[in-house]
Amino acid sequence: MAENQPSQALKVPQVRVNPRIPFTEEEVSQILSQAKDDRELAFLMVLRYTGLRIGDASLLKVSQFTGDRIYLYTTKAGTPVSVVIPDSLCSLLKRIAPKGGYFFVRADSTSMHTCSDLWRRRIKIICKGLGISPAHAHRFRHTLAADLLLNGAGVEDVAAVLGNTPSIVQKHYSQWIAARQNKLDDMVKATWSKPKLKLVK
């Protein structure tokens, strides 16, 4: 008879993927309305319209903004990201006086940890003041991903915009992929209500 093993009391860990919750349009408008200056408004808009992680956004360089788009290699994965941005954001970026070649450095330090932490703290203050929860800056990234999927973008397209792999997008945004499919299904069903064609003899 086998002796009892201490490991038998151990339970298999359960891995749970937290749902990615985007901001609503109203929440985004409320957050943007709380910006205290052009730099802060531009930063919030960069998060909203590019889906960049807060670390990459906080150290956005002037050289990474050309014409009507932002182009960079993400810090986390080193993947290239090229995203077109609205005219209103382009105008804001052109008005901002950069610090050492950076748009959004808030102190003397260009450490990603320091810069992103300062912006993360500011966004939490704004969200909590508005009663928006959870107060995470990463929700801007989820907002863009959900919008793209619901507007017909494929998984590969969203992955290219976010600088992720299609498998990561599939894993984290599956609920929005399903919502996109439901939207497409509704569009197809809407065609069923058209009058049937009558054959003319």
List the main descriptive attributes of the protein structure presented here:
mainly alpha; hpI Integrase, Chain A; globular
Number of helices: 9
Terminal Cα separation, in Å? 86 Å
Helix fraction? 40-55%
How much of the residues is beta strand, in percent? 5-15%
In CATH, the architecture is: Orthogonal Bundle
Question: Within the CATH hierarchy, at the fold level, what is the topology?
Answer: hpI Integrase, Chain A
Layout of strands and helices, then pairs:
Blueprint: H1 25-33, H2 38-50, H3 54-58, E1 65-66, E2 69-73, E3 80-84, H4 87-95, H5 112-130, H6 139-150, H7 155-162, H8 166-172, H9 174-190
Helix pairs in contact: 1-2, 2-4, 2-6, 6-9, 7-8
Describe this structure in words.
- There is one protein chain.
- With 201 residues, the chain is mainly alpha-helical.
- It has a single domain, classed as Intergrase catalytic core (hpI Integrase, Chain A), CATH 1.10.443.
- Helix content is 49%, strand content 6%.
- The chain contains nine helices and three strands, in the order αααβββαααααα.
- Strands 1-2-3 form a three-stranded antiparallel beta sheet.
- α2 packs antiparallel against α4 and α7 crosses α8.
- The mean pLDDT is 89.
Nutshell version of this structure?
It contains 9 helices and 3 strands. With 201 residues, the protein is mostly helical.
